[in-house]
Amino acid sequence: MKCPECNSKNTRVSSTDPHPVEDFTKRYCKCLDCGACFTTIEKYANSAHNPGRKKNSFSLNQYQCQMIKRNKYMLSNKEWAAIYNVSLSTIIKGKNRPASFQTMQQVYF
Q1: Is the residue at 55 inside a domain?
Q2: Euclidean distance between CA atoms 17 and 30, whole angstroms
Q3: How far apart are alpha carbons 82 and 57 in whole angstroms?
Q4: In whole angstroms, how far apart are CA 19 and each of 23, 25, 27, 45?
Q5: How many structural domains is the chain composed of?
């Protein structure tokens, strides 16, 4: 953490006091460059409240799925995953994903 006086990162925590009732910790710090003393307060994040994505949700759009299916650039699944920043299983699902109903109507009618 930075010193509020001189913006130096050369600081040390001298003591830590967890609050007995509230969900926070108070840290007493000292800058080793200018000698300034300061306090920081850390609030605990409730990490149990991370719902994530809904089940059966999909993170690639229709255009991305079409690009992966065509594979015009002859890329591997791993390379596609790196490009779209998704997992390999998402790329495989994207390849096997059927065309949307609107696209099917345009093709057949």
Answers
A1: no
A2: 15
A3: 20
A4: 7, 6, 11, 15
A5: 2
Q: Is residue 53, in this structure, part of any structural domain at all? A: no
Give a yes or no: residue 66 inside a domain: yes
Say if CB 41 and CB 24 are below 8 A apart: yes
Instruction: State the DSSP string of 10-46.
Output: -EEEEEEEE-SSSSEEEEEEEETTT--EEEEEEEPP-
Q: Which domain holds residue 19?
A: 11-43
For β-strands 24-31 and 11-18, DSSP reports them as: antiparallel
Residue range 62-81, pLDDT digits in tens: 888 888 888 888 899 999 98
Rounded mean pLDDT of the chain?
A: 80
